[in-house]
Amino acid sequence: MAPESKPSGKSRRKFLKDIGTGVIGTYVITPNVKIRGESIKKEYTDALEGKIELSVEVNGKRIKRKIKTSITLAEFLREDLGLTGTKLVCNHGECGSCTVLLNDKPVYSCHMLALDADKKRVLTIEGLLSGEKLNQIQQSFIDNDGLQCGFCTPGQIMSAYAIIKNNTNPTDEDILKGMSGNLCRCGAYPKIIDSVKEAVKINN
Predict the structure, then answer these.
(1) How many angstroms separate the Cα of 100 from the Cα of each of 1, 5, 122?
(2) Domain 51-203, what architecture?
(3) C-beta atoms surrounding 170 within 10 Å
(4) Phi, psi of 101 (to 5 degrees)
(5) Cα separation, 143 vs 149, whole angstroms
(6) Counting beta carbons within 10 angstroms of the beta carbon of residue 45, is it exposed (0 to 12), middle (13 to 18) or buried (19 or more)?
(7) pLDDT tens-digit readout, 99-125
(8) CA 116, CA 73: separation in Å to the nearest integer?
(9) Global confidence as pTM
(10) Which terminus of the chain, N or C, has less C-beta within 10 A?
(11) CA dist., res. 178 & res. 165, Å (int)
């Protein structure tokens, strides 16, 4: 008998069994490869778009998002999170309308990258609410007419809140210095200062 015509030693049943095992093996492996491939593709796409993961606490809630490295904190708060109480007015870090608290300190959110807030705490005007109840500093601005057009008001309130939070008994000089980075185009400064002073009295 010629060598090529010799029996291979494999039965038809074993041949079919081997094929079946191969099919099952392929079925088990392929989804994992596909999922991993999609993950790599997403990472590659994010890298091309200049995206990186941001982990930040906003108003007491931990948030993780892939964001573009170029967006500002104000843009992230307003556009990604829908927290539009933070106002964009000058967008040049000059007027203070976009003021939020970063680790309890007031900052211009239009003038810093969102990534600079990574692993930090951010408090916005929305975070001062307790359910539907206003914070005392918010109520003081209403009671003392510390606002007119309202564009600068969220930033004014956040700066005022920072003063009271970091100094339970601020002097007039402390208040003026703490509010000096917030401009009011309507010129409501006397009423704004009165609002802060009343909130200080109530807290004490």
Answers:
(1) 91, 85, 7
(2) Roll (3.10)
(3) 18
(4) -100, 130
(5) 16
(6) exposed
(7) 999 999 999 999 999 999 999 999 999
(8) 8
(9) 0.76
(10) N
(11) 12
